[in-house]
Amino acid sequence: MFSRKGVILVCVIVLVALNIMVIAFIGQNYHPTGGPGPVGLYLIAPFQKAATNIIAFTKDVWRHYFFLVAAAKENNRLKKELREALKSNQQRIEIELANKRLRALLNFKKNVNRHVITAEVIGKDPSRWYKTVIIDKGKADGVVKGSAVVGPSGIAGQVIETLGQYSKVLLMIDRNSSVDAVAQKKRARGIVKGDGGNQCRFEYVLRKHDIQVGDVIVTTGMDGVFPKGQGVGYVSGVVKRNSGEFQEITITPYVDFENVNEMMVLLNPIARNAFGSFRENP
Questions:
Q1: Coil vs helix vs strand at 128
Q2: In sequence order, what are the residues at sequence separation of 6 or more whose Cβ sits closer than 8 angstroms to the Cβ of residue 214?
């Protein structure tokens, strides 16, 4: 019903009042030469001691109270500074990663003899059956159906639909995608097709070719979409059946399609759409 601070304050007031009353009573019979006398000293000493102890205790309580208040304020200030520092550090890391990805795209651009534009991925197909993304470049930027799209570390797919400011890209890992490719060292040619997951299959490779895990697969340039010699991925699995003409080869793409944020569109003079027909770019 009463706070601890209020009770302490009342006790201090009562003891001080009693102390004053005793001092006033003794003061009436006080003689400069004799002092308060033994009886007066006996009566006043306990009250003075109690009052002194309570006053000291109260000061100590207040001192600790203000110390805790100051410590709480300092703690809140430090927490706020820590949150701001963490936020600033996260933003710095994001900027560094974005710069790293853009530098990789720019390095790719130097090796491609075509006009290219950088695009940002702004949406992904939520369906598990299709592997497509939306980029923020479209017809207004010179993008047409069939334009090749590359990521920071290799080819990514091709444009299958375009509007004024946006385009839809069919990723290389989609089951409807196909890329004419070759094993870089063994020169075994085949078609890279998506498996609908995060990998691809290297199909129509004859069993006579000695394909090994780790072999690099690059584009041939013969499909009219991707430039010759661009990285597709590396061999991550090889199965040779006892019968059959071809091997079963699994390819892991160089592009991390789960985390890709920027792509580059190649505005090549002649582009082929996803269904195999050729058309002249405007």
A1: coil
A2: 234, 235
Contacts of 44 (CB under 8 A, 6+ apart): 19, 22, 23, 26, 36
184: β partners: none
For tokens 């091709």, what's the residue?
Answer: 158
* Distance from C-alpha of 263 to C-alpha of 278, rounded to nearest angstrom: 23
What's the rounded Cα separation, in Å, for the pair 2 and 94? 55
Residue pLDDT, tens place only, 97-137: 556 655 665 665 555 556 788 899 999 888 878 899 999 99
Point out which residues pair with 103 in neighbouring strands: none
Over residues 138-162, the pLDDT tens digits come to: 999 889 999 999 887 889 999 999 9
Residue with tokens 């129509």: 204
What stretches of the chain adopt beta strand conformation (E)? 116-124, 132-135, 148-150, 155-162, 167-171, 178-183, 189-194, 200-203, 216-219, 231-239, 248-253, 262-266, 270-272, 278-280
**DSSP H stretches of helix in 29-169:** 37-110
